[in-house]
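Marked as duplicate of an earlier ticket. Keeping the data here for the record.
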Amino acid sequence: MGRVRCGYTLVELLMVVVIMFVAVGGLVLVLNEAGRNTWLTTQAQGDSQTEAQRVIDRISEDVRNASRAQVRCAAAAPQLQIGLDGAPTEIEYTFAGGGGTGTLGRSVGVGGASITLASRLMVFTCSPIGANPAGGFLTIQVTSRGVARITAAGARNYDQALTASVFIQLP
């Protein structure tokens, strides 16, 4: 009478352990890469939104310090000119773009040096609301681009649009 085998041999158990290690290792690599991609994407979205918000905040502050007659928008070469109350100094925002992204410069005074306020902007527009150019409201739209490097072969771009309406108080 032959002996009946119960259980597994050591070689069979080692093979199962090796297969499980390979499977779990592959799963960990996939999940780690997905987490990294999510983190990079979220960071790029946050960076672009922060840049757009910073531009809107700065322009809003300057517009609030101006009188109604001293705010001028030029659509041809996207630009906003703001004259401060009680001062001959003028603040000028000028957008220079090309190749999908551009920079927004801010200069103070006639012939003043331009300081780069934002460098990854796609769109900068300003226009008065209503039929009257000095109607009391000014719409400023800023679209900033955040870039998340996902693979070595390319990048994903995330556009964050932020639109604000700023009330210009009467002098």
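See parent ticket for discussion. The beta strands are 66-74, 79-84, 90-98, 101-108, 114-128, 137-151, 154-167.
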